[in-house]
Amino acid sequence: MAQKSAKKLSMIFGSGIADELLPLGMIADAAAAMNYEVIIFVMGAGLFTFTKTPTLAYSAETSKIMPKIKSGMKKNNVAGWQEMLQEAKSLGTKIYACSQSAAIIGVNKKDLSKLIDDVICPSDFLIRSHGGELLFL
Questions:
Q1: How many CB atoms lie within 10 A of CB 134?
Q2: How far apart are CA 119 and CA 98, in angstroms?
Q3: pTM recorded for the entire structure
Q4: Which of 41, 66, 71, 117 has its CB surrounded by the most CB atoms within 10 Å?
C-alpha cells in the first residue's frame, strides 16, 4: 500500500459540460505525480461523463475551438482526459461517484466507467477530503 502524502487535493466534478474534463485530468495527473493524495468526487450532471457510454457536451465556445485543441494535443503528444485520469489512478488517485446523484439520475455502479473506484455519499467524501485543498470543477 502506498504511503499517505502530507499533501491532499480533493476535486469535485459536478458539471455536465465536458469543457472541464481536460483540466480535471491535467490537475489530477500533475498532483498525483507530485505525491499529493488526490480524491475526485463526481456528482450531479458530471456523472453522465463517467458512465460506460458517456455523454460529452461541450459549451458553444469550446465546440468552436475543439479542432484546434485536438490538433494541439496531438502535436504536443498530450493524452486525453481519460488517459490522464488513468495515469493519476495508477499513482494512487481515487475517483468516487456521488450516491445521491447516482440515485437521482438512475445510474448504478455497474453503469459507471471503470475509472470510478466506488460510489459514496457526500459525507464520506467530506471525511476523506478533510484537511486538504478543495477545487470545484
A1: 14
A2: 6
A3: 0.90
A4: 41
Grid coordinates given for 86: 488513468
d(CA 14, CA 11): 10
| Burial grade of 91 (CB within 10 A; 0-12, 13-18, 19 or more) | middle
Enumerate residues 6+ apart whose C-beta is below 8 A from 102: 47, 108, 109, 112, 119
Q: Which of 93, 132, 107 is nearest to 51 (CA)?
A: 107
Interatomic CA distance for residues 21 and 59, integer angstroms: 12
Report d(CA 9, CA 95) in Å as an integer.
Answer: 12
Residue type, 28: A
* Amino acid symbol at 102: A
Class of CATH domain 8-136: alpha beta
Res. 54 pLDDT band, cuts 50 70 90:
confident
Distance (Å, rounded) from C-alpha 125 to C-alpha 50?
17
CA 49 – CA 18 distance, rounded (Å): 7
Q: For position 61, what pLDDT does the model report?
A: 86
How far apart CA 122 and CA 99 sit, in angstroms, is 8
Task: Please give the DSSP secondary-structure letter assigned to residue 58.
Answer: -
